[in-house]
Design brief:
Blueprint (H helix, E strand, L loop, with lengths): L1 E7 L1 E4 L3 E7 L4 E2 L4 E2 L4 E2 L15 E4 L2 E2 L3 H12 L5 E4 L4 H10 L3 E3 L12 E5 L4 E7 L1
Parallel strand pairs: 3-7, 4-8, 7-9, 9-10
Antiparallel strand pairs: 1-12, 2-10, 3-11, 5-6, 11-12
Length: 137
Amino acid sequence: MSIETTLTGRTLVAGSASGPALVCTAEISGWGGVDPGSGTIVESTHPQRGESFAGRILVIPGAKGSSGWSGQFHLCRTMGTAPAAIVTSKVNSKLAVGLVALHVPAILVDDLDAFDADTELDITLPGDGTAVIRKKS
């Protein structure tokens, strides 16, 4: 049995995707914060350190660090370790350029309260600016 919630957001990058979520409780530093070869968060102070976003729906409150964010995430794309899509609640220049480099579906939602980092979630972005969240029970 699963519990389903639908959030309405704004499309940042068009497209649809579906898969398991990696819900981050903190922004990710692109330069030095991720391993492009595995899609793993390696930033030493990040709460989700050691988790891989490869092929998953990456839920993040935003991006931090330098403009290297787009370069690192472009490497993830070329190495096949990119996330399947991104859901965020904050867009800054680092994330915007990173989304262009990743070219994966992305939406902006008002807040990330519906995404519980401690619960297994499957997320579908049907391509209409919504996110369908399924909590596994």
